[in-house]
Amino acid sequence: MNILQSIIGALNKEESRNYKLFINRTNPGEDRKDVLLFDLIKKQYPDYKEDSIALKLYGKEDKNALYRLKNRVLEDLSKSISLFYFNEDDVNAVLYQTALSMHFRRKGMAQVAFYYLGKAEKRALGLENLQLLDLIYSEFIRLSHETLLVNPEEYILKRKENREKLDQLRQIDDVLAAVIYRIQISQNLGGSDTQILDVLQKTVLDFADDKSVRKNPALRFKIYESVSKILLQRNDFDSLERYLHRTFDEFTAEALFSRNNHNIKLQMLTYFANSQFKLGKYEESLASAAKLLAAMKEYDGFLQDKYLAYYFNTLVINYSQMDIRKAIDTLNEAKDNPVIKKLPVYNVFIFLNLAVTHFDIREFKASLKHLLKLTMSDSFAALDESFRFKVAIVELMIRYELEDHEFVLHKLAQVRKEFPKQCKNPDFKREREILDLFPSLIESTGVRHDVPLKRKIDKFLKTRTDSSSDIINYNNWLKSKLRPE
Question: Which of 477, 390, 475, 383 lies closest to 428 in space, CA to CA?
Answer without folding.
Answer: 390
